Amino acid sequence: MKSIAHAAPAVDVQAAPKAHARNVALDRARTFLTLVVLLHHSVIPYTYFGHTDPTSWIGFDCVVLATDSFFMAMFFLLSGLFVWPGLGHKPLPIFLRDRLLRLGLPFVICAVTVIPLAYYAIALRETPALTFSEFWWKTVTVGPWPSGPIWFVWVLLAFDVTASLLYRVSPRLLDPINRLSQQAFDRPATFWLFIVVVSIVVYLPMLVYYGQNRWFEFGAFSVQASRVLLYAAYFFIGAGIGAANFERGVLSANGRLTAMPWSWAVVTLIPYAGMWVMIYIKRAIIGNPDPLPGWYLVFYGTFFVLFSASILFAILGYFLHSKAAGPTLLDRMQGDAYGMFLVHYPIVLWLQYWLFDFDLPAIAKAAIAFFATVALSWAATAALRKLPGAKHVL
Fold this sequence. Notes:
Layout: H1 24-43, H2 58-68, H3 71-80, H4 83-89, H5 92-112, H6 114-126, H7 132-141, H8 151-169, H9 175-183, H10 188-210, E1 215-218, E2 221-224, H11 228-242, H12 261-285, H13 294-321, H14 329-334, H15 337-355, H16 362-384
Antiparallel strand pairs: 1-2
Helix pairs in contact: 1-2, 1-3, 1-13, 1-15, 1-16, 3-11, 4-8, 5-8, 6-7, 6-15, 9-11, 10-11, 10-13, 12-13, 15-16
C-alpha cells in the first residue's frame, strides 16, 4: 500500500478539485444512500416502533435502527465535500443562484405537492371520507405541515448559505480539518476519532436537553432538534475534507481507508450491539419512561455516534476500494438518484396503503413496497427529467 512519508502539505485552495469533477466511488456511495432511504421508508410500517400495519418483523427493526443512525449524517458529509472548491470557482451570486435552483425550488414544489399527496394516504386511512382538497387546504393553512424526507433539502440549503458566508470571512477557515484529513491518508482512525469527538460535543448536550423526538417546526420547515448540530458538523467536516488536496486526504482512492473497509464493518458491530442493549434496558428494565433519563440518553447517544462514524468509514472505504467496472446499476441510477429521493415518498406511502389489507407476511409487503418504489420513482424521475430545463433541477 502506498504511503506518504513526508509531512502533509499545507492546504492549497487553488489545488482543490473543480466543483464539477466527478468521483465514481462517491457517486456510487450517494446513490447507494438513496436506495437506503427508500428501503428505510419501505420497512418502517412493519417494525415494532412504527407498527402501522397488521404485520411486523423484528429484522426490520434491525434495519431501521442501523439506517436511522447514520444515513442522513452521511448524506450531509457527502454534500459538503465539494462545497468549498465550488465557492472558490463561482462568484457568490452564481453559487447561491445554483443552490436555490437545485435545492430551494424542489423544496417549495415538493412541500406543496409531493408531501401533501404522501400524507393524504395516512389521513385517508383514519378518515375515509376526507377529500384531497380538504386535506391539502388544512395542511397548508392550519397544519400540521410535515415535510417528510425533504427536510434534508432545506437544511442543506441553509448549510450551503452558511458556508458561502463563512468562505467570505476566510477561504482558509477549514484548513485545520483539511490538514487532519491529509494526515489521515495513512491513519484513518485519527480522523474517525475526530468525527466521534466532534459528534459527542455537538450531539449529546442537544440529545439530553431536547430528547430523541423533539423537532423544530415552522410550517413545512422542520428538523430534528437533537441532530441539527450533528448534521452541521458532518457537513462542515465534509467541506473540510474536500477543501483542497482531496486525493491526498482520508477519502483518497489510494489511502489507507481503502485497504480496510471490512475492518470498519466489524467495528460497527460493537456500538450497534450497544444501542440494542440500551433499547432493551429502556423497554424491559426502566419501563420506557417519557422523558428518558439523561444518563440513558448519554449512553445511547455515545453508541449512536460511534456507530455513525464507523459505518461511514465502512461504506466509503468499500466504495473507494471497489474497482467494479461500469456501468453498474448504481452508475445507471446515479443521474436520477436525487429525483428519486424527492418523489419517492408518496409512492411508498400509497403502496403501503394498498398493501395494508392484504394477508401477506411483513417481509413480502416490504419487498413489494421497496422494489416497486425503486422502479416507480426511477421511472417518474426519468420522465420528469425529459421536461425542458428539468435536468438543471433534478
